[in-house]
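If your schedule permits, I should be very grateful for your opinion on a structural question. Kindly check, if you would, that the fold set down in the tokens agrees with what the sequence suggests. Thank you for your consideration; the sequence and its tokens are set out here:
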Amino acid sequence: MKFGCHVSIKEGYTGAAIRAIKLGANAFQFFPKNPRSLSVKAFNRTEAVHCHQKMAENNLVSVAHSPYPTNLTASDDKQDLVVRSLLNDLEIAEACGAIGVVVHFGKQVDKDPIHSYKRMIHTLNTVLKKWEGNGKLLLENNAGKPGTMGTTIEELVQVRKLCDYPEKIGFCFDTCHAFASGLWIGENWEEVLTIGERLGYFDHLYVIHLNNSKYPANSGKDRHANIFHHGHIREADFDKMINSTILKDIPFILETPSDNGVTHEEELAQLNKKWK
């Protein structure tokens, strides 16, 4: 099993890889630049290559996460900013040897959901027409109330199919988001598996955000909790999911809080003791 966590790049990209190793991880996630800005970053390519080498030497895998303001359904006046930022994210991720860049599924922008889907697909096409690297854009399921945009496997798969460059798109499954939206409520993992396999979702799943939820299923609230503490997803339900054969090569990345007295190092040790 590949267990990891989100790490800071304050010590550089190579520093992030070294930090992950020290925590006992064999996978990690990082923001390629300031997580609160869509500005394009002029990064140190030599340092990024060193990160790639450090990962290869230590059998690490990584994934980047787009900044918080990234919005695939952005208005016309902001779409160019989002496109340039995502291309920059992909370029940095590729240089660092990452699988790709996680980006949240778009939000509904008006009463007509079709308009939002069209806007999202247009943004993806605009980015991917210009992107010639190997790294993928990884669409992450949303945490909204059941029925809101981006909360079903069917939507994720269909958006990928409707894009002009589906081969450049993959998926990221967030367990807290799935729980909050009612996609996965714990005991229905077999149903999720059946739907995902039928639609080919798991063929393009590259990373899992492994988070518990501070709120009950169907709450629509995106509030992460630690895997073994203070969460509503039961350990037995995680057990059934993590032990699924179809996920055996997928990295599980913690985005859990560290303000509850549980560090990522401790949590990774618990994960490896129970499931490795």
